[in-house]
Structures are given as C-alpha cells and as structure tokens.
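step: validate -> pass
step: tokenize input -> pass
step: predict -> running
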Amino acid sequence: MIQNKKIAVVLPAYNASNTLEKTYREIPFDIVDFVILVDDHSCDNTVEVAKKLGIQHLIQHEKNLGYGGNQKSCYNKAIELGADIVIMLHPDYQYTPKLIHSLAYLIANQVYEVVLGSRILGKGALKGGMPWYKYLANRVLTFTQNILMNQKLSEYHTGYRAFSQNVLKNIDYNINSNDFVFDNQMLAQICFKGFEIAEITCPTKYFDEASSINLKRSIQYGFGVLGVSISYRMQKWGLGKFRIYRDHINQ
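step: predict -> pass
step: emit ->
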C-alpha cells in the first residue's frame, strides 16, 4: 500500500508463457498488494506458468475475447477486490515493471488520477526497437487526436496505464470494443469526464516474444482510433450522441 491505498497490478495475458515469469519477478511487491492475471484463452502454457508463480487471482477465458475484452475482466476483478489504484502491465515484458512505483505514487498522492507510461517522451521508442512505420503512425495519429480532443498527450497508444478506482467507476468501459481500439475509447471517456492525465517517460523493448499486431490489424486500428476521436469532437459539439460517453457510475 501507499497512503493506505490498495494497489493492484493487472496482467492481460495472451500467449505470454515465455515472458510472464520475468515480468512478474520485477513487480515491486513492497507496494503492490495483489496481482490479477486474465488469460484470454492462450494457446501456450501461460496458465501453467501463472499457477507455478503462485498468482492468486487467475481468470481464464473459455474463449478468446480480444485485448479489450481481457482488460474488462481485469478491471472488473480489481474493482471487486477493492483496489484503490489499478496498474495495467503487459506480461510480454515490453514495458518495465520498475516504473510501477512512479505510476502509483502520482495517484496515491492525489496529484493525478490517470498516469500513462509514454514510449514517445524521450527517445525510448526508437531506441527500444519500435519499427519506423509504427513510430510514424503513432506520431501522426497522436497529432490528429490531440487536435480533435484538445489534449497534449505524447501518445495515446501505450499499453502501460494506471488508474484510480474513482476513474474506473465513473466511465463505462464495459460497453467499449473488445478489440485494440478499447484503449483509445477508454482515454476518450476519461478526457470527456474531465480527468487530467499525467505521462512519464517509459523505455520499451521490441523483440520476438513481445506482442504486436500485423499491418492489416494496425491499419484497422488506425481508422478505429480516428473514429473515436471524431466521435469525441462531435459529442463535445453536440453534433452526435455516442453511448461510450453516457453518464455512468459503475457500482
């Protein structure tokens, strides 16, 4: 705990058997109270590795729900267990668990309620091996999103995120997509509710075992992201009504 706040790390896992143990071993259990792993019907032995590590809160999907569907299970369980701060960490070791202290303290000390680990601040993305086409796509999408959503984020596409319980209870993330665009829908909901977002520099690693989507899925994701940002602007201008922005308190 920090400041008497219970901290949960959630691991949305899919075929992460080769990297899960290394990721888990670096989680700082001096402040983290519990870990939740949701296995999205992996084809490898992710579940067996999780059991071997003694991860107490293990959820197994009976079918593959997708990246967004996995996160929904993660956050729902974290809220059920009474977590005050929830940190999403990919178990593919692309992001270092050593930043959990930094993410958690900003929320625990009531500086921000949302903190993102940004690969773009500094030179971490390219230094860590992010392909040039992904880097350029990230920059173009982020520039466009910042204009449409009136924000100044360095990126919207990181998978390293920390939230207060208050944020998770005040956005209806369960109605979002089960696919990769879930992340952007969630940030749009957070911005629409008026929560401020902090970012910290985050090194990243690209290697064979790190999860990634192919070019076709990346293009679909890009169009989906633009659609979310356009819906945000239309909702703000009163030119449309989109259900992801509806008033909601998740009890």
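step: describe -> The two ends are 23 Å apart (CA to CA).
step: cleanup -> pass
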